[in-house]
Design brief:
Layout lengths: L13 H5 L6 H4 L8 H10 L4 H13 L3 H14 L4 H13 L3 H10 L5 H13 L3 H14 L4 H13 L3 H14 L4 H13 L3 H14 L4 H13 L3 H14 L4 H13 L3 H14 L4 H13 L3 H14 L4 H13 L3 H13 L2
Helix pairs in contact: 3-4, 4-5, 5-6, 6-7, 6-8, 7-8, 8-9, 8-10, 9-10, 10-11, 10-12, 11-12, 12-13, 13-14, 14-15, 15-16, 16-17, 17-18, 18-19, 18-20, 19-20, 20-21
């Protein structure tokens, strides 16, 4: 049954959950025994037009967090051998990991393939771009071509939920749980489906199962924190967010969620620190500036509140509540004309 109103589901970062499943075994052959950087660069120097040499080095660079350098060699490999579908796939996946989904889609469009991997990646790229009907079509094709790939199933469930096909998503998840009982991502999909349908207790159980299967997955702990928060279990939500951040402190949104949860726990000082940590990762984060603006207003720092709230609406002009708070802070700061303009913007927004 489709939900009347889409709820913001505990989501997983697509770039993290995809991983870098590169098609190298068949395309590149066995790796040499010496896969040090020196050996890999020497191989390129000896055979600069060998696409496999560039692909091997790109894989090395990608695995060592040097994505920009890896992209250059993935591009070279494709330029040298445009008939090998693995080269196009590798480049498109690396572009998606580098947060360049439009460029990834262009590569896939230019190099179509009839494999499940191609359609799975295409679906993930379209999902990232918010083109949900097209993503669903690609992912359905991927699942049909490779029904044993739980990643494609997960992405299809996410897409179905985003397009209001909750009943179909729930049925698919139930079948997937029976088929892949030890795959954390499938339990996460079950949690997402239950959360969309308002079945929060089931969502909690599903995400708890997911983190037991993959206890080092920061995204899963953050999603578990979301469903704990939705059920009012704020203490466990904070523990889940803290665990997520201990595993990966780079996610600004998790710091923001943790801060909002701390506010509900009446821990304003800790919450403020969390909001500042979010801004350290993402200086333009609208949510963090909004929350810091409200805190500044609460302690009578109206100039500080205005500065924070102005940053919030600059980063996210559709953030309606921020315009309302900004109008109040303008008025308290004696800026009546600005207050009236901000209030008018608030009233115009849906």
């Amino acid at each position: 049954m489709g939900s009347a109103e889409m709820r913001e589901a505990p989501g997983l970062d697509m770039r993290k959950t995809l991983g870098l499943v590169i098609l190298t075994a068949a395309a590149l052959g066995a790796q040499t025994a010496d896969s040090s950087e020196a050996a890999l660069t020497a191989a390129i120097s000896a055979r600069p037009r060998d696409p496999a040499a560039h692909s091997r080095y790109a894989l090395f660079l990608q695995s060592h967090g040097r994505g920009a350098e890896a992209l250059a060699h993935f591009r070279t490999a494709l330029d040298l051998d445009r008939n090998n579908p693995a080269n196009a796939y590798n480049l498109a996946l690396a572009l998606l990991a580098a947060e360049q989904p439009a460029e990834a889609l262009a590569v896939l469009d230019q190099h179509p393939a009839a494999s499940g991997d191609h359609f799975a990646l295409r679906g993930s790229v379209l999902l990232t771009l918010g083109r949900f009907p097209e993503a669903a079509a690609a992912l359905r094709r991927a699942v049909a071509l490779d029904p044993n790939n739980p990643d494609s199933l997960y992405d299809l469930v996410v897409t179905l939920l985003k397009t209001g096909h909750d009943r179909e998503a729930a049925g698919m998840v139930a079948r997937a749980q029976r088929r892949f009982p030890r795959v954390a991502k499938i339990h996460a999909a079950a949690g997402m489906s239950a959360y969309h349908d308002g079945r929060n207790a089931e969502a909690v159980k599903a995400y708890e199962a997911a983190v037991k299967l993959e206890p080092q997955a920061a995204d899963l702990h953050a999603a578990l924190g979301d469903v704990y928060a939705a059920t009012g279990d704020l203490a466990r939500a904070e523990a889940a967010y803290a665990r997520s951040l201990a595993l990966d402190a780079s996610a600004a949104e998790v710091h923001l969620k943790s801060g909002r949860n701390l506010m509900k726990l009446d821990r304003a000082a800790d919450a403020e620190r969390a909001f500042f940590r979010a801004l350290e990762r993402d200086p333009a984060n609208a949510g963090a500036n909004f929350e810091l603006g409200k805190l500044a207003a609460a302690r009578g720092d109206h100039a500080g509140a205005v500065a924070r709230l102005e940053r919030a609406v600059a980063a996210s002009p559709a953030l309606k509540e921020a315009w309302y708070q900004l109008s109040l802070s303008y008025r308290r700061a004696g800026r009546e004309q600005d207050a009236a303009a901000a209030l008018e913007t608030f009233r115009r927004l849906p």
